[in-house]
Specification:
The complex is a heterodimer.
Chain A (H helix, E strand, L loop, with lengths): L13 H9 L2 H23 L4 H17 L1 H14 L2 E6 L2 H14 L4 E4 L3 H5 L2 H7 L3 E4 L2 H8 L16 H11 L9 H18 L2 E4 L3 E3 L4 E6 L3 H7 L3 E7 L3 E2 L5 H12 L7 E6 L9 E7 L3 H6 L14 H5 L1 H6 L10 H11 L17 H5 L6 H16 L2 H14 L2 H10 L4 H4 L18 H4 L12 H11 L2
Parallel strand pairs in A: 1-10, 2-3, 2-4, 4-7, 5-8, 7-10
Antiparallel strand pairs in A: 5-6, 6-9
Helix pairs in contact in A: 3-12, 9-10, 16-18, 18-19
Chain B lengths: L8 H15 L5 H9 L13 H14 L3 E5 L4 H12 L3 E5 L12 E5 L4 H5 L3 E4 L3 E3 L4 E5 L15 E7 L3 E2 L2 H8 L7 E4 L4 E2 L7 E2 L6 E7 L3
The chains are: A alpha/beta, B alpha/beta.
Bound molecules: iron/sulfur cluster.
Iron/sulfur cluster binds next to helix 14 of chain A.
């Protein structure tokens, strides 16, 4: 995978890429370790919260309400941001967004930028566009730096370099920072990154960021992070360019009280992340004096138009579904052929990319429901997967399967029905077994298209318990 | 500048048109406001602990995040600050405009930030500020650009941050903090929970990447 751009239009379909990933034992070990650590931390800090379910419900309602009134809140954000000295731009698609950002960087008079980790800029392959325009982009998030220097691709939306272990990181830093003596303790590596980047923070005059939230009521932008590299990028440069999907807007300042509780606990298992920054336009003597926001559609309105797929836009990019997903944990992120991997990638990528890879990504799931359970804004990922499979099936005109998908969709829309069906262990089994003869019984949950996965897994105990129960007990036994 | 940048009104109109088409019409203000008010907020919005317990929780959570915390009465701040600086071996500190003089002990150099550059800030041993609000449940301190707290870069570039938190500014939950911040929501605002940290390398928490690596908190006031 290294070096290849994760572009759904060109990368191999999931089953083929998954098969390759399954052969990389180091990668699988690294991914498993990282996701297990985050999952355990997440479970601990979520259990502390007596009102977690109420927070999730509020999160879901706020996001739903925002999508239902997206035009209103975007215009409100634009008005308030402009009033505070920001400049708002709109981009219909990735090409337009790249063009606007490139032109803004050039206008800032700089031929280099410091960047905060942003999946939105990954989505549009911004760094390549900047490079083509003669602009050097420095990634400043430690994980993104590892990926940039290693000419690799992100494999997780929160911890993009979780597929690399310390020895691999050390090799990259030794080579790229010219530090042959570099130690391999995590502290040594972090220290090398600190020294490497500090000079850039103090020198480079233009910053590029994504946004976690745009606040319509105030025109403010909120970024959450850990390392302080985000604060450096959005405080020290003279010009700051923030690019955000139109789905990132929040109605009011008060709504931060919900998402700032849901996001860090779900994403990194922290009660709050080390740093949250909120800024509104420009302020004399504090931070960049030129501030641009690019509001990007890039197929988000198409998702909005699809009533059943719309909830995909509620995502706050915490990555919890990736950590919880048995398929992601086996294959890592690159197999998804997109910067959005795991369950969220399986539903977001085909929709963002005009159903490229729709033939395989909606099948890159065991439909075990773990992603739905951990999602802080209660996105029913299995339901959307079924909906997308249904679309695929319709395109292919397979009516028996289409009917089965409808039944599955009906079951997934109700958590109680889903649980009951799981306990019965017979849910929609027969019609789901694919006619090509691959997979049977519960393995039917992993349609045969996922051959790369099922061939390597030991699924012998499956019929006695649900996949979900099996997975949970497997995790507890630590094997 | 701005020769190549034309605010793209065609793109704006098109995106808004697509949104309205997707959801079957434009939203009107009254309807939006009413619908927002209808969002169920069944989560905790008020404190549930006694004040003493809230302060102890904050101390506990700050320590959990590798901050060093001392608790002193109002009159004892300067002495406590002096002790902390001496222990850390810090001599030359930057302070924001408007910091109260009685917080600053003798025997150290305090330079007021009246527009220092990032490189100049990088030359200090540390920074000392007050704070706006602190959240016990999450171990978080919030700074805004006001007198005594200053601009964001000043608490970011130096490697050490000493922060004074008054007990009356401590709340238990995140919603209580957001209530307090609402009236000054448009000021540049930074939440920090412990010193800078990363877990990007094998999920091991490493203190201090780009922000201050060391954080001391003086918690002050009587209960
Ligand atoms: S779908 Fe839910 S769990 Fe997955 S990244 Fe988005 S918000 Fe997090």
């Amino acid at each position: 995978m290294s070096g290849a751009v994760l572009d759904p239009t060109t990368s191999p379909a999931f089953p083929m890429a998954a098969k390759a990933a399954m052969g990389d034992t180091q990668l699988r070990k690294n991914v498993r370790h990282a996701t297990e650590v985050i999952q355990a931390k997440r479970a601990r800090v979520v259990d502390e919260m007596p009102d977690w379910q109420q927070l999730r419900e509020a999160g879901k309602q706020i996001r739903q309400h925002t999508m239902e009134n997206l035009d209103f809140y975007l215009e409100e954000f634009e008005r308030n941001c402009t009033r505070s000295g920001g400049v708002v731009h709109w981009a219909r698609d990735a090409a337009e967004a790249r063009q606007i950002v490139t032109a803004l960087v050039k206008a800032s008079g700089s031929d280099e930028v410091i960047k905060i980790k942003s999946m939105t800029t990954e989505e549009i392959h911004l760094n390549d566009a900047l490079e083509a325009a003669g602009i050097r982009a420095y990634e400043t998030d430690l994980a993104e730096l590892i990926i940039q220097l290693g000419r690799d691709q992100p494999s997780h939306i929160v911890v993009p370099a979780l597929h690399k272990n310390r020895q691999q990181i050390r090799e990259i830093f030794q080579r790229e920072m010219n530090l042959p003596e570099l130690g391999e303790k995590p502290e040594d590596l972090a220290d090398a990154a600190r020294r490497f980047l500090r000079e850039k923070f103090l020198r480079v005059k233009t910053g590029v960021s994504g946004a976690n939230f745009l606040i319509a009521e105030t025109g403010g932008v909120c970024i959450v992070e850990s390392e302080g590299n985000g604060r450096m990028c959005l405080t020290l440069p003279e010009t700051l360019i923030t690019i955000a999907g139109i789905d990132k807007v929040l109605p009011r300042y008060q709504d931060l009280e919900v998402v700032l509780q849901l996001l860090p606990r779900s994403a990194t298992g922290e009660r709050m992340n080390p740093y949250n920054s909120i800024w509104t336009g420009v302020r004399a003597g504090d931070g960049p004096q030129t501030f641009h926001v690019v509001l990007m559609d890039n197929a988000r309105t198409e998702i909005l138009a699809d009533e059943e797929g719309r909830q995909t836009l509620n995502c706050i990019r915490c990555g919890a579904c990736q950590n919880a997903c048995p398929v992601y944990r086996q294959t890592g992120g690159h197999a998804y052929g997109s910067v959005y991997a795991g369950p969220i990638g399986a539903i977001l990528t085909p929709q963002l990319q005009e159903m490229h890879h729709a033939q395989s990504l909606p099948y890159a799931s065991s439909l075990c429901g773990a992603c739905y359970e951990v999602c802080p804004v209660k996105i029913n990922i299995p339901e959307v997967l079924i909906h997308l499979r249904n679309k695929v099936v319709k395109q292919n005109g397979l009516n028996a399967e289409s009917l089965a998908m409808k039944t599955m969709g009906m079951i997934f829309r109700s958590e109680a029905r889903f649980r009951a069906a799981q306990r019965l262990g017979r849910m929609a089994e027969a019609p789901l077994v694919r006619k090509d003869g691959q997979g049977e019984g519960w393995i039917g949950w992993l349609p045969g298209i996922l051959g790369g996965w099922t061939q390597v897994r030991d699924l012998q105990a499956m019929p006695k318990e649900t996949f979900r129960e099996w997975w949970e007990s497997r995790g507890k036994n630590g094997n | 500048m701005a020769t190549e940048i034309v605010t793209n009104s065609a793109a704006r109109a098109e995106v808004l048109r697509r949104i309205c088409a997707a959801k079957g019409g434009a939203s009107d203000e009254a309807g939006v406001r009413a619908a927002w008010a209808g969002v169920e907020r069944g989560y905790r919005r008020k404190a549930s602990l006694e004040r003493q317990a809230v302060i102890e929780l904050l101390e506990d959570r700050l320590r959990d995040y590798d901050a060093h915390v001392v608790r002193v009465g109002r009159g004892g701040i300067a002495v406590a600050v002096g002790e902390m600086l001496a222990k850390r071996g810090k001599r030359r500190m930057v302070v924001p405009v408007g910091i109260e003089a009685e917080l600053l002990p003798a025997g150290f150099e305090f330079v007021v930030d009246e527009g220092l550059s990032a490189s100049e800030l990088d030359g200090f041993d540390g920074v000392m500020t007050g704070s706006t609000v602190a959240i016990a449940e999450t171990g978080t301190v919030v700074l805004q650009n006001v007198a005594g707290q200053g601009k964001r870069a000043a608490t970011l570039v130096p490697d050490y941050h000493l922060c004074v938190v008054r007990v009356e500014d401590v709340v238990e939950t995140v919603p209580e903090a957001m209530d307090r911040l609402a009236s000054t929501a448009e000021l540049p605002t930074t939440f920090f929970s412990g010193p800078s940290a990363t877990a990007d390398i094998e999920m091991t928490r490493i203190k201090g990447v780009h922000g201050p690596r060391f954080l001391d908190v003086v918690l002050t006031g009587e209960l």
